[in-house]
User: Fold these one by one.
Assistant:
Number 1:
Amino acid sequence: MDKGWISIHRKILKNPLVKFSSKYSYAEAWLYLLLRATYSNQKVVLGADIYHLKQGEIITSQKKLRLIFGWGTSRLKTFLKLYKKDNMIDVKTNKKLTMITIINFSNLQKKRDTNESQKNHKQSHINKDINKVNKEPLSVRFEKFKEKCKNELPNEHPEYEAFVNWFSAYNEGGSKMHWEKQKTFNLKMRWATWIKKSKNPETKKQNLNEKYPYDKTGNSRLGKCESCKSTVFLDKWNPVLDSPCCSGSKVIGKGK
């Protein structure tokens, strides 16, 4: 298991479950430098000075490193001298600052870049269909969305047309429909939420009919006690959902 390489996100330094020792080991100090090194050329302003950092460089101070590593002056100097001698880093120091360069950082970055196509593979897979769809003309996507709604949703429902019109509406530039601008979009889940929030009296009436259907005479509605599961006859126009047979229980839909 000593071959190959892994990439480690810089956020590991802020993860409370991955705590470094109060007094760093050499390995922890080395990992810290790798994570703090610039990944590309950057401009850094410190006080009244501007520093142009190249890939793999860190600008800091020995005082700051001693505080972070929990070391004294002697241990820090030994660490820097040892890693410089092994050609792992280069160190330049003045009275104020210390510039550390990771010698092999660019080579490690090249390896990372050659494997960039594998990065975020899972997310790419999730967005694959959406990206493919968005390359199609809006008119084609519009018709496909309407067809999907027609096949998966109850077309005769009083809210159907309003739902389809809302989510198929597109922005002023005509590049995306409303549903395409959502972070996630599950058609049936969106439909269920839409119906639940609807204030249309016809929708409420249909929902009532589906949940508490009429009995054979058409004079009462049918439900069942949530506790004993026995059938309960409800008022046709204003059903009371307190169970008449089990105290404290409710009447649920016959179909549940």
Number 2:
Amino acid sequence: MNIVKWLFAIVALGLVAIAISTSDSFAAKDEWLAKPVLCNKSHDVVREKFYYVEDLVPMMGGTTRSRINKEGDEVDAVIFILFNYENNSAAIMEYHTDYVCALGFMHNMEFDTDKLKEYLNYDEGF
């Protein structure tokens, strides 16, 4: 991947994460759902048996507050996006002090902002 795509990906994903985590309008009409996530208590095992095996390298990371139960209790965490350049795929991982969780996986990554806006009907009504 060339440096322009790399820089764009870092900036774009960071802005999306910030917008979602700080937006009052995002939470105003939606509800929190409990979705299954895959977690492991060993950071070393995740790194050696998943990141290294899948050729995932850190692309970006940032701090967050993570809900840990139905009552809405939160703890500090760090989210990393790891990328596989050869397969154009990524994993979204959430790190806590005593475990790490896979929040999602992406394949066929797209970096073209026009295509992304089209997928989301982003300019509609503006």
